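User: Could you check the structure of this?
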Amino acid sequence: MPTIEESLRYYLNTTGLSLGPISQRVYLFHTTQLKTRPYLVLTNITPHPRHAHDGPTTSQERVYQFSIFDDSQSDGAALADALRRLIDGFQGVMGPVGSQLTVRSILFESQRYIYEQEERTHGFNQDYCIQWYEA
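Assistant: Sure, the predicted structure tokens are below.
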């Protein structure tokens, strides 16, 4: 069964044409030591488990942070805007054929700007509430 993280990365890799080279530089949870900018890191911030009286349901909800890092502040901001336009409000199936998840919604929550002095990198952290069904 695919994870939501794998499905999100697959979606960005295959439909993220407006994201340019970043669509092929999507890392789950952390980056490699040798990273080419720009790149995106996807991190699970907090789960919101769903339960019924008889136990957990197949409906899942988590807040994910999409962190974009770039050498240029204006290019990074443009990528963050393109990401928001691409996924905010998404509903439908996501993932490779044969192992897709049904996404109920991807909802933009907030964005923060950071500057990493040591690496001289501009970062844009966006939080999204993502709801989906597990098989």
